[in-house]
Amino acid sequence: MTRPVPERADYPDLEVGHPKREAVGAEAVVRSLESTVANLGAARAARLLLAVNQNGGFDCMSCAWPDPAHRHTAEFCENGAKAITWEATRSTVARTFWAERSLTSLQDATEYWLGQQGRLVEPVHKPAGSDHYQPVSWERAFEIVGAHLRELDSPDEAAFYTSGRTANETAFLYQLFVRAYGTNNLPDCSNMCHESTGTALNDVIGVGKSTIAYDDFGRADLVIVMGQNPGTNHPRMLTALEETKRNGGRIIAVNPLPEAGLIRYKNPQKARGLIGRGTEMADRYLQIRSGGDMALLQAVSKRVLEAEAAAPGTVLDHVFLREHTVGLEALTEHLAALDDAEVLVATGLTVDDLDDLAAEYLAADRVIITWAMGLTQQRKAVDTIKEVVNLLLLRGNIGKPGAGASPIRGHSNVQGDRTMGISERMPESFLDALGREFAFEPPRAHGLDAVDTLHAMRDGRVKVFVALGGNFVGAISDTLAAEDAVRGARLTVQVSTKLNRSHIVTGQEALILPALGRTEVDLQQAGPQFVSVEDSVCAVHASHGAVPPIGDEVRSEVAIVAGMARATLGDDHPIDWDGMTRDYDVIRDHISRVVPGFEHFNDDVRTQGGFVLPNGPRDSRTWPTPSGRAHLTVNELEHIECPPGRLILQTLRSHDQFNTTVYSLNDRYRGVRKGRDVVFVNPDDLERLGLADGDRVDVVSEWPGESDRRLPGQRVIAYPTARGCAAAYFPEANVLVSLASTAIGSNTPVSKAVIVRLEKVA
Ligand SMILES: Nc1nc2c(c(=O)[nH]1)N[C@H]1C(S)=C(S)[C@@H](COP(=O)(O)OP(=O)(O)OC[C@H]3O[C@@H](n4cnc5c(=O)[nH]c(N)nc54)[C@H](O)[C@@H]3O)O[C@H]1N2
Ligand SMILES: Nc1nc2c(c(=O)[nH]1)N[C@H]1C(S)=C(S)[C@@H](COP(=O)(O)OP(=O)(O)OC[C@H]3O[C@@H](n4cnc5c(=O)[nH]c(N)nc54)[C@H](O)[C@@H]3O)O[C@H]1N2
Ligand SMILES: [Mo]
């Protein structure tokens, strides 16, 4: 019997309560342990939770937050426990699943329901013209991939996606396969995530990564947290922010929403966190209008420069600016002309707010600015991040203890994947080294990023799509356009642990190849293998699986990539794919000769706690830019015009999801239970729009020159977000974001600022 599939976006039991004003504490710990034990059994749960983020254990896959030098016995958070439980479940997709269900019958399945079906344990193939997947042998599956790739007129007619959970060794092998095959079409989740950060930081400081170390949080006088919800997405960061507070530092949050974790934190690892009142987090909370950060940063920098003009020689770090930067004069001139009235419109803040933030910045000797998707998924994201750097540079806040620019990465190894060559445009120096090591000429033309891959699929220029993890069609913007494009492909291949939308919306022919997860022991001919990852602060460490594989047929990602490579390039290809699969030390030896910073990889990764990659700006104030200096830049302010009767909608994560993976229908901190079909709107806006809490509305987005996009039947929640702004959940709301709406310079979908109107439905 076919189990009924729930209809999309219809949650009859939805409950709405009050938002919380504190995060974590005893309740979260108890809940996460209860659910892990209930799902996995006590012994398996204990084995996993005691191994996570420990030396000799595995790296938590829930985010890229770094580990402190002194680890607790329990070095995980509530959301890490959910991610582990989700992967390490013992339920599996039944052998009969696909015989009983056509793809057509699964078109309305939600991500939540798909994820509940358990782990994928055998390779399956959907032949062209068929509406069902059917079991297929590994060898046959690889042959299908190889045959399709060899048949293409050009290697550029294929694209190879990577999601950021992929480990360093796998990522390196995968990009090697793709480049040996002949293309740089390596789109990845980073294109939708921190691409704006990499683009901006590379331009202005020469390194696209964070300039701080973990311990800097404990040394900072001021941490400004912008566009980020650490209580949900990086919960262990709250422990680092608590260190800032305990050492006398201050915290300022800049966010349209009052996020619980930024208001108060009860540390579950400390007795006072379990029973006491916890730590007050943000000393100031600026509820900025969506997309207003660039204006805010310029206004603060302007005030810093005015303070210097009023008391010359006393405000700026002149020695630093002289020795290490270029561009001060142009920046000073440009900001002098900044129109405060425009800043007030753009930010929705008051003059006092701007003055106070400037005063806080000036009172601090060591300042860290952290950010995530609230800044990167904006049209002017790249320029906004350059303004973060401008503000930091003015007082020498890069390359000294307790200070720096700190993008907080998303996926647990998204940063490492980039280091390993997963990018559609790696620098020439990387391609040269790769070609030398493996005696071939890598392709040089830039490849396609995530958005451009979809354009190319839509136009028939990309015909084969291979995904190493992730849920491309579920995660990218403009869902309906994306799905149409994917359906036109000849072959789509998903290497996955669990079911998601990208298995249901496929090319004419499709494969699902089941992979081992990070929690599982990876046994190869040379014995159990470990992999490695790089966290948000450039620390690289090993990850060892802790529990037996979920099934006999499931293969490691390395083995799957090697299998595809051999089948595509032929058994007599000079690259020894099998040797690298037998023993991952062989892959690491190759990496040590290709990637700077990894020269003694196999030794360094075996030292307790791993090693930290070199970083010029952080370590020695050296700037690998063309001028050899850090650049203060002039960026033209542009604020979001919101026509009357419209709102600026952001799409964001609930507390119980990991990207497109939905663990439960609750969003505890925001007071939502048993449903996700909601839109959060400020009460003043509701009144202005003639709507009320509890109304049902279609959320309709408008993009110039295109027809309207619609997310039907959302329940309105009156919520204390900034005025003029609204919020709805990713990935359901992706349908509203035009594929044409991307950040200037990084091509990242503008997921945090969509102009919408709300249409009341009966
Ligand atoms: N549990 C869990 N952990 C995760 C993830 C997950 O889904 N679940 N995802 C992982 C990934 S891949 C990533 S990239 C990170 C994402 O981590 P976050 O960036 O924290 O994730 P979002 O939910 O997108 O939250 C964006 C935040 O920015 C704010 N914001 C929106 N627009 C603006 C703006 O214009 N200005 C400012 N200042 N703020 C704004 C929102 O109100 C929200 O608080 O988390 C990683 N960790
Ligand atoms: N509207 C909107 N869109 C967004 C965002 C947003 O804020 N708003 N955020 C963007 C961001 S920041 C990101 S990073 C992307 C995320 O885009 P993706 O990385 O593509 O999506 P995920 O949901 O993280 O992928 C989940 C799937 O990965 C597979 N998986 C999990 N673990 C493993 C593993 O160990 N191995 C393998 N092979 N597969 C595994 C499972 O099958 C699971 O279903 O989405 C982006 N899209
Ligand atoms: Mo991300």
TrEMBL record:
The keyword Oxidoreductase applies. Pfam families: Molybdopterin, Molydop_binding. Its cofactor is [4Fe-4S] cluster; Mo-bis(molybdopterin guanine dinucleotide). Residues 647-703 form the Molybdopterin dinucleotide-binding domain. CDD domains: MopB_CT_ydeP (cd02787), MopB_ydeP (cd02767). InterPro entries: Asp_de-COase-like_dom_sf, MopB_CT_YdeP, MoPterin_dinucl-bd_dom, Mopterin_OxRdtase, Mopterin_OxRdtse_a_bac, Prok_molybdopt-oxidoreductase, YdeP_MopB. Residues 119-471 form the Molybdopterin oxidoreductase domain. Keywords: 4Fe-4S, Iron, Iron-sulfur, Metal-binding, Molybdenum, Oxidoreductase. The keyword Heme does not apply. Belongs to the prokaryotic molybdopterin-containing oxidoreductase family. This is FdhF/YdeP family oxidoreductase.
